[in-house]
Design goal:
The chain is an alpha/beta fold and about 230 residues long. The protein has helices at about 10-15, 15-25, 40-50, 70-85, 105, 140-145, 150-160, 200-215, and strands spanning about 1-10, 30-35, 55-60, 90-95, 110-115, 135-140, 170-175, 185-190, 195, 220-225. The termini are far apart.
Length: about 230
């Protein structure tokens, strides 16, 4: 039995679950996610292998922003393949990602099998917690996402780059619901315990310039937190 799996690479692809699932179904395949979505790639590979799949083809789909490099699709698949007990199916990976649903069939024309020699999931570069001054948490819950928090993240990343703020300055993370949903999109900055609401791209850019780079809270969008 042969199987096809479309793999959503970014958080934005989790938001587009229905579109990706429909594209997979049209091709007789299934859907998995590399991060923050269910089923995970590892879980879907296990399910298919347990069901008797002898060859599984993976296509990475990146329709949003901030997707990890294509190499991570091979890393995760290879890790699963090495750890798989018993009979292992052949796992083939499309040699490049597609950024559109219309490009799926084109990238399927070139695949490369997992050999088991791919890099693992650990590295000396990923051993320690970064020395960041701030941890910025951008809500990607359902309401914040519906109100454009994906574009909030995009603007914030670009602004951090413009101000030369890397992971040792600001650690930017996606979160689930942070609760003051009426104020969506919500962003919180730690350890300052400062919360911002209605953070559109312009506000995100201002937060980076004023708060993260300049050291001054952006009062216009600051939320009051109960203590």
């Amino acid at each position: 039995m042969r199987a096809l799996v479309l793999v959503g690479m970014s958080v934005s692809d989790v938001d587009r679950r229905d579109l990706l699932a429909a594209a997979a179904q049209e091709r007789g395949g299934t859907l998995a996610f590399l991060q923050l979505g269910d089923p995970s790639l590892s879980a879907e590979l296990t399910r298919l292998a347990d069901a008797g799949a002898t060859a599984i083809t993976l296509v990475g789909v990146h329709t949003g922003i901030l997707a990890p490099a294509h190499s991570w699709l091979r890393r995760i698949a290879a890790y699963w393949w090495r750890e798989r007990a018993g009979v292992r199916p052949t796992v083939l990976v499309a040699t490049r990602l597609t950024t559109t649903l219309g490009g799926i069939d084109e990238v399927l024309t070139a695949t490369k099998p997992i050999s088991g020699d791919e890099p693992g999931l650990t590295s000396s570069a990923w051993e320690d917690v970064t020395g960041h001054r701030h941890q910025v948490m951008v809500c990607r819950g359902p309401r914040c996402t519906a109100k454009g928090s994906d574009e909030t993240v995009r603007a914030m990343v670009l602004a951090l780059m413009e101000h030369n703020l890397g992971d040792d300055d600001v650690l930017l993370v996606h979160t689930g619901c942070q609760f003051p949903c009426n104020q969506a999109p919500v962003v919180s900055v730690q350890p300052d315990d400062v919360w911002y609401g209605s953070v559109d791209p312009a506000t995100a850019t201002a937060i980076v310039a004023e708060h993260l780079a300049g050291g001054h809270v952006l009062e216009s969008n600051r939320l009051t937190r109960e203590t």
